[in-house]
Amino acid sequence: MSFLAPIWLVLTAAVAVPLFLHLMRRRIDMRREFPAARYLLRAEKENVRRLKLRNLLLMLLRTLTLLFLAMAAARPIGELLGSGHVPSAIAVVVDNSMSTGAIVSGNPLLGRFKTMARSVVQGASANDETWVVTADGTVAGGARSVVLEAIDRIEPLGGRADLMAAITHAAGLVLAADLPASTVVVVTDGQSSQWPGDLSLGPVRVVAYAPSDTAPYNRAVTMAEPRPPRWSPKGSVTVGASGADSVTFRVTLGGRTAARGLLRGSDEQVVRLEPSERGWLAGAVDLTPDELRGDDERHFAVWIGDAPAVSVLPGAGVFVREAVDALVQSALVTRGSAVEVAPIDEATKLPALLIAPTDPVRLGAANRNLERLGVPWRLEEVRRDETVARGTDVDGTSVRVRFPLRSAPGATAAPDTLATASGEPWIVAGPDYVLVGSPMTADATTLPVRAQFLPWLSNLLSQRLTREGSGLMHAEPGAPIRLPAGVTGFEGDSTIFSAGATVKAPSRTGVFFLRRGEERVGALVVNPEREESRLDRLSGPELTARLRGRDVVVTADPSEVTQRAFDASNQRPLQAILLLLALACLVAEMLVVRQAEPRGVRQAA
Amino acid sequence: MIDPASLASLGRIEIIARWVVDGFLSGLHRSPKKGFSVEFAEFRPYQPGDDLRFIDWRVVARSDKWMIKQFQEETNTRAAIVLDVSRSMDWTGSPERLTKLRYAEQVTAAIALLLIRQRDAVGLVRYDDRLRTVLPARARSIQWRRIVKSLEDPGAGSDSRMAEGVQQAAKLIRRPGIVILISDLLVDVDQMESSLRVARAAGHQVTVLHIMDPSELELDTRGEAIFYDPEGTLEVTATVSDVRKAYAKTVAHAIEEWRLRLAALGAGYEVIRTDSPFGVPLRKAFATRQRLP
Q: Which residues from B are below 8 Å from A597, CB to CB?
């Protein structure tokens, strides 16, 4: 036998009270004149043995009553007779990942899970502690009614979440409760992508429900990607879907249908668009609905604006000048002064594409200009060793003349290195500038003569060197995100975040515009993980093998989950028995007292 | 029926005694004994030792037989009431009841009045740790006033010299008569038995009225206390609830012992509760007497 609240055993000291009262020599102050005292004396003498026995019995009954009450207060459990189940800490983990929103037999799978969770929690007694934990780690615990309300409020998540982390969290909760039985009940669809590996839960009992039927067929939008990220104002959306058969899709932009099409198998389609709207727009690609609606739509956001106005200074070189002319003709850029393309020593302002000078003697002037413009980079002595550049869009470019770039002393910004040559920075970028360590001439580098030069230059001018439209973020539902500097919150939400705060992405999918004060400065696109659309399930034995606990039960029978949720071991609460024994002692004590004091006599007295 | 305490509160002892006796309708009796008085009863043959004054000489002359005239006695008998006035008698278990002594005095007055009205001679002996009052038996009406007056004398001594009282009563009555002992009998049984035996040997009819407060019959209090005997040093510490049953049994046993031992002596014995109407002891006292030889 052990005790759940052994501190109350101190109450057993109270048994000393009747013992003390029985053993102490009582002082009686009341004196009564009674002429027939001789008869009283005779009566006492004749009954002394019976009186002693009776007093001993009363003392014993009172002592036992106190002992039983004190032990009951300490909440004993043991392998004796008892009722109910051992006090248990039970955490019900409800898998509410996106896949549980699938309709099976006309009802959402999650509805079945919630019914099971309710029935487990309703089976708890006052000695139990219960929690409900959802796949996104949300925990509700406390009174049974609170937990039941929390179960009713569970909705399918927009994404995968982390079921294994939720189960681990639940195991921690039940172990911390320090009750004789710790059980985690998991109700899940057994989606194999949720169980990448084994999960060890130590001494915790695990009762898991996983349906044994086959997962429904599912098609999902796997791609809805705007290219480029900033449209000026032309752009395209690359659309893709999973599945082998053909499916119709629709592209919406700004709430209006922008295009429709047919996807064959897992092909991708590019939908070109030139919307008339400007600024941040939310878009989506959706498919014909199937059993799992959560992945039949995928969101995107684009910034749409006019083409950047570019001015090319003469020292930038003929290749650059010609390329910009071509971009102007393609309407990807316009003539203007918003962005400057110039040699480093000639640049007058930012934003600018800064190109290394052709003449090494202008090195000093170039560095002084960099310092004046506030660019935290400096050019070193020219090097004329042929090397190959590594970096996005410039990979494999040959570099023969270059000024190695080094960070300026005292620089605090964290610039991007877009490309390297011989392991040293060759093209770097920062706010409002892109710095190239070689002049744009054919004898210095093959970059201007490569086919990628034009898209590379276009991307730099329209995406990196344009201030607008830089605040695009992508996240999965519930994932932590670090807000860009200057963002104070989301549109439609009055919460104000501090600069650079890390927040949790919404658990539902969609486009959430970022704001700085009242100004829309970016967008957060929340889409489900692609693997969440794969609904294939683990079998019961496979799931059992993944779970490591004291006693793991995986079943496809909902009633068995409720039945086995509580530990049916031999240990039972003995509180009720002890209270009954205390009551029996009290009744016996009352009977003994009443025997000596008949009712009529008591009333008369 | 009006209770004794309420009745006693209505007037002085002699008034109450008159009410009691007047209400006691069956108190009058005729003695079966023949004496020498003015009212002729019958003749009987002379026997040696008879008083020569009662020989009827006319009958002797006519029949030559010595005949004695017998007369109905006017003073039928002589009685002595022995009243215990010790401290134990001056106790009541409830303020709503008379003390045993007050009750016994009332009974004494009533019995005395009843006897005197029947022309019986009545004497009184009061005792506690000594003899307090000794009134020789007289049949005059003034005797009752003497008795009532003597009841007002102090008593409540710390002992009961019952043997002395009974012996004194036996001496007061020269011829066989009635001795009525009114006491709570909180004395040694053997000692009392011997004194009563002496009275019985003298030919007296003995009737014992055992006065008991209801609280002495059944412990009707509760709690713990030290119970002490007002006439001695006896102290008993007891929890009433523990001994209530045993006490009642002990008292019943003691009463039965008194009854048996007095019956063996040929004495009448009646237990009188102080909450009984005064007619009850009168009726019991004389009913007992008529049963006796």
A: 222, 241, 244
Q: Is the same domain home to A381 and A358?
A: yes
* Residue A418 shares a structural domain with residue A324: yes
In chain B, residues with a C-beta closer than 8 Å to the C-beta of A54 are 242
pLDDT of chain B, 293 residues: tens digit per residue:
556 666 666 566 666 666 666 665 444 444 444 444 445 567 778 877 777 878 888 888 888 888 887 665 545 678 889 888 888 888 888 888 888 988 898 888 888 888 887 778 888 888 887 788 888 888 887 888 888 888 877 666 667 777 777 777 777 777 778 888 898 888 887 878 888 888 888 788 888 899 999 888 888 777 778 888 888 778 888 888 778 888 888 899 989 988 898 888 888 888 888 888 877 777 777 665 543 33
Q: What is the pLDDT of residue A464?
A: 82
* Pairs of CB atoms within 8 A across A/B: 100
Within a domain: A261: no
Exposure string for A18-43, b = 16+ CB within 10 A, e = fewer: beeeeeeeeeeeeeeebbbbbbbbbb
User: In the predicted model, what is the mean pLDDT of chain A?
Assistant: 86
B87 contacts in chain A (CB < 8 Å): 35
Q: Do B245 and A596 touch (CB under 8 A)?
A: yes
Look at the block and give the residue holding tokens 């002797």.
Answer: B60
**Nearest-Cα residue of chain B relative to residue A602:** B222
Across the interface, whether the CB atoms of A40 and B243 are under 8 A apart is answered yes
Chain B residues with CB under 8 Å of A22 CB are: none
Minimum-distance CB partner of A30 among B226, B230, B234: B226
My answer on whether A28 and A78 are in the same domain is yes
- Å between A65 CA and nearest CA of chain B: 22
Span of A82-86, A320-324, B169-173 with lowest mean pLDDT? A82-86
Question: Could you tell me if B16 and B282 are in contact, meaning their C-beta atoms sit under 8 angstroms apart?
Answer: no
Domain presence at residue A260: no
Cis ω before A351 (30° cut-off from 0)? yes
Q: Count how many domains chain A has.
A: 4
pTM of the model: 0.52
The pLDDT of residue A428 is 92
Task: Specify the pLDDT at position A399.
Answer: 93
Q: Where does the pLDDT of residue A571 fall: very low under 50, low under 70, confident under 90, or very high at 90 and above? A: low
Going by DSSP bridges, is the β-strand pair A247-253/A279-287 parallel, antiparallel, or unpaired? antiparallel
Among B218, B228, B246, beta carbon nearest to A34: B228
Do residues A333 and A414 both lie within one domain?
yes
Query: In this complex, do A47 and B224 lie within 8 Å of one another by their Cβ atoms?
Result: no
Domain that holds residue A169: 88-215+537-568
- What letter does residue A267 receive in the DSSP assignment? -
Q: What is the pLDDT of residue A250?
A: 94
Question: Do A454 and A516 fall within a single domain?
Answer: no
Residue A163 CB coordination number (10 Å): 27
Q: Residue A78 has which token pair?
A: 């043991």
Taking any CB pair shorter than 8 Å as contact, residues of chain A touching chain B are 26, 28, 30-44, 46-47, 50-51, 54-55, 593, 596-597, 601-602, 604-605
Using a CB-CB distance cutoff of 8 angstroms, which residues of chain A are in contact with residue B220?
601, 604-605
CB nearest A40 (choices: B89, B227, B241): B227
Is a pLDDT exceeding 90 seen at residue A259?
Answer: yes
Q: How far is A582 from chain B (nearest CA, A)?
A: 24
Strands B131-138, B178-183: pairing kind: unpaired
Do A193 and A100 sit in the same domain of this protein?
Answer: yes
Could you tell me whether strands A2-3 and A76-78 are parallel, antiparallel, or unpaired per DSSP bridges? antiparallel
Chain B closest-CA separation from residue A59 CA (Å): 14
Q: Which domains does chain B have, with CATH numbers?
A: 4-29+75-291 (3.40.50.410), 39-72 (no CATH)
Q: State phi, psi for A87 to the nearest 5 degrees.
A: -55, 130
For residue B246, give how far its alpha carbon lies from the nearest alpha carbon of chain A (Å).
5
- Taking an 8 Å cut-off on Cβ atoms, the answer to whether B226 and A32 are in contact is yes
What is the DSSP track for A517-579? TTEEEEEEEE---GGGG---B--HHHHHHHEESSEEEEES-HHHHHHHSS--SS-EE-HHHHH
